Each structure stands twice: as C-alpha cells, then as structure tokens.
Amino acid sequence: MKKYMERLWNGLIKENPVLVLMLGMCPALAVSTQAANGIGMGLSTLAVLVLSNLVISCLRKVIPDQVRLPAYIVIVASLVTVTELLIKAYLPSLYEELGIYIPLIVVNCIILGRAEAYANKHTPLLSVMDGIGMGLGFTVALTIAGAIREILGTGKVFGAQLLPEGFGMTIFIQPPGAFLVFALIIAIMNAIGIKTRQRKLVESGCDGNCSLCVSAGSCETKPEEQKGKETEKADKADAKGGEQK
Fold this sequence. Notes:
Elements: H1 2-14, H2 25-31, H3 35-58, H4 68-90, H5 92-98, H6 109-119, H7 124-154, E1 156-157, E2 160-161, H8 175-203, H9 224-244
Antiparallel strand pairs: 1-2
Helix pairs in contact: 1-7, 3-4, 3-6, 3-7, 4-5, 4-6, 6-7
C-alpha cells in the first residue's frame, strides 16, 4: 500500500507535473483564466492519463520498441477523441471554453512522458496510481492558478463575488497574469521546500557543511553526488591496493 500512496504523493507534491517538472505549461497557461476551466482541463487530462497508462502498461511486452512512441500516440489519440466527444455532448459550455486544448491533450508531454518513463516499465496497478497522482497534481495546479487569477482579475471565483463589485486587475486574466501567478506559486513551493530541508538538517544535528564535518564519512544527509565521488575514490584505492599485492 505504501508504494501506491507514494505514487499519489509524488504526482501531487514531489514531482508535480506543472509546478515542479514544468510539463504541460501550454494548456496550464492558456486555460487557467478561471478555476472551473482548470478543473475541467485537469480532470480531462487525468482521465486520459489514467487510461493511457493502464493500456500501455498492459501492452508493454507486446508493443515493439521500434514503434513504441507512435503506438503511444495512437492509444492516447483514441482516448482523447472519446473524451472530447463526451465533453462536447454532456458539457458543451466547458467544451466551448477549452476549445482546441482538448484535442491537444494528444501531444501533452505529461501523458507521453509518463507513458515512456513509468507505464512502459511497471505493472498496470502502479501505472494507474501514477496516472492518478500526476493527473491530480495537474488538476490542483490549474485549479489553484485559475482561482487566483479569477479572484484578482474579476473579484469572483466559481461565480461567487468575493471582492467588492467592480474590483478587478485585468492583467491577471490575460497571458502575462498566468506567468505572474505560476511564478508566485512556484516561488512559494520552493521556499517551503528549502525551509523543510533546513529543518531536517537541524533536527539531525547537521549544518550541511560536509567538508568540515568530522563524521562526514558516515553522514546520511550528505549530498548524493559527494557520496558517489567518495565511493568511487574508495573503489579505486581498493583496486590499486589489490594490484600492489
């Protein structure tokens, strides 16, 4: 169960596709003018991502490596077509708002990236959980950005008036506003991440300066790159000693 929950947490926070990996920025910037649009786009992408991960994981041993990416695109395109027709039939207003960005889910690098990096190498259930985590992360990022832009741009969110009538900074519902809002959210996440890492170092009694630490040889908080270099040096020293003997 732990590894399945880890996939959810990974997609939501640690490797959020928009706020951490910077994937799928084109639809994220374009449709996040309103929170409702963010939810609609996010859930559409989530559905395609989960189903494509499931199908690709089930067929991972059947699809030849030579046609791997074209096969992924065919699978994703089929699922996107079904999703687009369902939205057009049952949610016409959302279909009008999202427009061309629904069929463009086919080439969304989040979907193709997870298919290649994860679904192609793991079991169907793990791939589904990875798709849910990444899809929820995408949805949350678009919804938060959309809500901020809608509130600052119109004073409303989900149709409810939160700020005084007539309030609105129109720049936030225009393209430059998208860059400003996403930059703000990413800066806040980075600041929280830095604080969290610093607190963990303090709790472990480490100041982060491995070069001056007498117990650096056995320190678990040492950067992985430095650990790798020291391990390589030790291996070379052992090999040299063996040759001398």
